[in-house]
Design goal:
binds 2-acetamido-2-deoxy-beta-D-glucopyranose, 6-stranded mixed sheet, 11% helix, 12 strands, mainly beta, 4-stranded antiparallel sheet, globular
Amino acid sequence: MKTHFASLVAFVLTAGSVSARTVFSAIAVDGVEQGHGIAVRVPTTNNPVTDISSPSIICNTDFIQPVSSAVASVPAGGVVSAEFHHTPAGYIGPDPADPLDPTNKGPVIAYLASIPDATQTDVSGLKWFKIFEDGLNPQTHQWGSDHLFNSGGFANVTIPSCIEAGQYLLRVESISLSSATSYPGAQFFLSCAQLEVTGGGKASPATVSFPGAYTPTTPGITANIYGDSTYTVPGEL
Ligand SMILES: *[C@@H]1O[C@H](CO)[C@@H](O)[C@H](O)[C@H]1NC(C)=O
């Protein structure tokens, strides 16, 4: 009996500890895999960022060393697939919480920022513009996180054809809103990819700063995923 009880407790604890945690650790460019950690700044843990005023909200922190010195070339108008998995190691086999725990709902959002050198360490002061968002579809009740789960961790982001050629960081985040009825509570899982956009045009989209784009009162930073039937994705598109 005692043994059974102990294993029951262990089972319940294990089941309860399945977490939303996820890490964006690789990209594909127009369907071509670049390799794990190539041209992506991969954090060493899958811990969430929860402080939206912290520099970690820019590109995360505490990266696997050495950080990739690769810059992935992408034609303007091309598709970059941001690949999320449960741990920083990427896909390591069947795992009910890969790419993330499907019970943890929330949006997936991507921003670009022009940068002199996509491999430079300093990411402060960049001007970000949103190029992708996947929040809550009120018809299907599916979240961006559901699409991420169903796609095996791929968030496919089209690089606008109108932006200027040059080096950029691509910031992609999966936000878990399971404990987000008040701030702090939302959990941000994000990384930045290092890109060289070729071709392109002359557009200069309106931009925001990180930190700054999100505040505790920005719509979508708090949410009740168990009650709300609509959701506003944070940040302007
Ligand atoms: C996303 O891109 C990957 C390749 O990078 C591809 O295998 C997958 O089919 C794409 N998913 C969608 C929904 O287009």
